[in-house]
Each structure stands twice: as structure tokens, then as C-alpha cells.
């Protein structure tokens, strides 16, 4: 579901103009794509923040001069100290088309015994309908044993969603951790070895 955002054209550019917008609780943004010229706009900061919160691939419906346009959030620039949003890039899209995006991979389930599941990839590039982009991709490791690694070929993707990587790409590795030897035990073993060498 696309979040609705009221947009207004902006004619002033540069850092100074952007700072003035932010002081007015507005967010500078640019809309591009589909062979059209980029359009520089200003959005309500609070509404924009809510629209993209917790969603890296947020879909928004812009209302600009009485016309509506859906767009996909492609990039969010944040202040490195405050983490406040400073600028957004929006890609024009059309309902029904597919877009390439990256979504996080989430492990669900408990593997067998002491086996531990480790993600080899944190995110998965996919091709999905613009109005049906999944929030994440689930990898089920319930009951899997050591060595039963999960590849892309094992994955059950949502309808109309396809991955863009090779099917033999390993997503999750199943292994039993090697027990850590306490540092004091390692020191004792090293000391014993030194003593034995000295005795010889």
C-alpha cells in the first residue's frame, strides 16, 4: 500500500535552500525515471519519515499540482550524527511493472541439536511487482542438520517474485561451532610443552 505524500515543486537549490526547507519541517527530494526529466520537490518531513520508517523499499503516492504519481524510494541520505533524513531520491514507477530491489533475509526455525544457522548473505536482490515488494525473505532452517546448507534453489519465494542471483548461491550455512578453549587452558598446555622440551 503506497503512503500518500503531498509534494510541492521547489525552484531553489543548493545547501542553503535545503537547510531552509528543513527548518520549515520540509524534506528536499528528487523524482526521476521513466525517461522523464528529474523533478525537484519538497515533502512534509514528518509524513515522509513515517512513510519510510522500517521500510527500505517504501512505495509512496505523490500528489503534485493535483496529479498523482507513484514512486519507489531508492535512496535516503541521513545526517551522520543525528540520523535525521536530509534528502530522498524517488524512482517513478507504474502499477504492474517489476522493479529490482534488495530485501533482507530472515532466518526462522531451530536447526537440529547444537547446529547453528549462519547467514552468508544479509540481503537478497530480487525482481518483484512494485506493489508487492516483500519486506523480507524467510529462510526456514527448522530441523536442518550440519552441512545441510540452504541455497537459493531451496528457497520458496512469494508469487511473482524472482531472485537475480545464481540458484547455487549459498544463503545459510548449517554448522556445529568448534568449542572455544579457555585462554588459561591454552597457557597451561603451552607451558607443559615447553617443560617437556626442556627436559629432553
Secondary-structure map:
Layout: E1 3-9, H1 15-23, E2 26-33, E3 36-44, H2 45-52, E4 59-64, E5 67-78, E6 85-92, E7 98-108, E8 116-119, E9 123-129, E10 137-140, E11 150-151, E12 162-163, E13 170-175, H3 183-199
Parallel strand pairs: 1-4, 2-6, 7-10
Antiparallel strand pairs: 1-3, 2-3, 4-5, 5-6, 7-9, 8-13, 9-12, 11-13
Question: What does this entry look like structurally?
Answer:
By secondary structure, the chain is an alpha+beta fold. It folds into 2 domains: 3-94, Ribosomal Protein L25, Chain P (Beta Barrel); 99-175, RNA Polymerase Alpha Subunit, Chain A, domain 2. It contains 3 helices and 13 strands. Strands 1-3-2-6-5-4 form a 6-stranded mixed beta barrel. Strand 5 and strand 6 (85-92) form a beta hairpin. The N and C termini lie far apart (78 Å).
List the total number of helices. Answer: 3
The CATH architecture term of the largest domain is Beta Barrel
Given helix and strand content, the structural type is alpha+beta
- Please state the average pLDDT score: 88
Shape: elongated
CATH superfamily membership of the largest domain: Ribosomal Protein L25, Chain P
Adjacency order of strands in the biggest sheet: 1-3-2-6-5-4
Task: Give a short account of the largest sheet.
Answer: 6 strands, mixed, barrel
**Proportion of strand residues:** 35-45%
Amino acid at each position: 500500500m503506497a503512503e500518500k505524500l503531498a509534494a510541492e515543486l521547489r525552484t531553489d537549490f543548493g545547501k542553503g535552500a535545503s537547510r531552509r526547507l528543513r527548518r520549515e519541517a520540509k524534506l528536499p527530494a528528487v523524482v526521476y525515471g521513466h525517461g522523464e526529466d528529474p523533478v525537484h520537490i519538497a515533502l512534509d518531513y514528518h509524513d515522509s519519515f513515517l512513510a519510510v520508517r522500517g521500510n527500505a523499499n517504501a512505495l509512496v503516492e505523490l500528489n503534485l499540482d493535483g496529479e498523482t504519481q507513484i514512486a519507489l524510494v531508492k535512496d535516503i541520505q541521513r545526517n551522520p550524527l543525528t540520523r535525521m533524513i536530509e534528502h530522498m531520491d524517488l524512482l517513478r514507477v507504474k502499477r504492474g511493472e517489476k522493479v529490482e530491489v534488495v530485501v533482507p533475509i530472515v532466518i526462522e526455525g531451530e536447526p537440529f541439536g547444537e547446529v547453528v544457522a549462519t547467514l552468508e548473505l544479509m540481503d537478497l536482490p530480487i525482481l518483484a511487482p512494485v506493489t508487492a515488494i516483500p519486506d523480507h525473505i524467510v529462510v526456514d532452517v527448522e530441523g536442518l542438520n550440519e552441512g545441510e546448507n540452504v541455497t537459493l534453489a531451496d528457497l520458496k519465494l512469494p508469487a511473482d517474485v524472482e531472485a537475480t542471483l545464481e540458484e547455487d548461491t549459498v544463503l545459510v550455512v548449517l554448522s556445529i561451532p568448534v568449542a572455544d578453549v579457555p585462554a588459561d587452558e591454552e597457557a597451561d598446555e603451552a607451558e607443559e610443552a615447553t617443560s617437556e622440551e626442556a627436559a629432553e
